[in-house]
């Protein structure tokens, strides 16, 4: 009996059909955009809402491959490096604090009872709602942007690691102690290797929120960065800059997500997320 290639509960598309189906929505989106852009520019050549591909290429060439007359820098490169630095520090700090806090809260009941309610409380607070408090407390420099990313992502990582360690078989931990492992050895020699893939998975899922908090912080108080540039040029309706920047951010997010998934698949083959 031949299974249907597309329709039906038991559909089993061929590898080629899988590629076609995966690419179809993107092709349709691009086709709709190009068509709409063509007709808008035909009616009004000065239209800025739907720039042509050529206009966007010119904008990218100007920002990415031509030095700025004032700063002497490649604007797009400088924006990218500044944003990635803030994102990396914020997410990295969240990962370290979330890992250590989550593990120890799960393994040591006293610490867990003391901190779990506070971590849960912080996780409920919308980070963007306390953005003014962060800027007032830490100023408008780099620290405030990193703190927003940190406060927005570390509660999720902490609670996820806490739950993962709690779900470990208690017999495994008891056996390690029975065989002579000390408490610190239990934490860092037995538990840590098992939660590392879960940490990578959680960091991967936290990147979306990290980008959101980064762009919000850069839009309000910054002198460079991808979010800063987008909100700067929106005053002039410069969609020929905004769209390439959005696509570039999307590419960076996809690259980080793919990289972390590759680490999981190659370094932790046994992990089932």
Structure commentary:
With 273 residues, the protein is mostly helical. The chain has a single domain (75-267), classed as MetI-like (MetI-like fold, Orthogonal Bundle), CATH 1.10.3720.10. The protein has helices spanning 15-43, 53-64, 75-107, 109-124, 131-138, 142-166, 170-178, 183-220, 226-233, 239-267. Helix 6 (142-166) runs antiparallel to helix 8 (183-220). The protein is globular and about 80 Å long. The mean pLDDT is 90.
Question: Summarize this, please?
Answer:
By secondary structure, the protein is mainly alpha-helical. The chain is built from 10 helices and no strands.
Which percent band covers the strand fraction?
A: under 5%
The CATH architecture: Orthogonal Bundle
CATH evolutionary superfamily: MetI-like
Mean pLDDT: 90
| Total beta strand runs | 0
The top-level CATH class is Mainly Alpha
Principal-axis shape equals globular
Give the class from helix and strand content and strand pairing: mainly alpha
Distance, first to last CA = 34 Å
Helix content: over 70%
What is the count of distinct domains? 1
**Rg (C-alpha, Å):** 24 Å
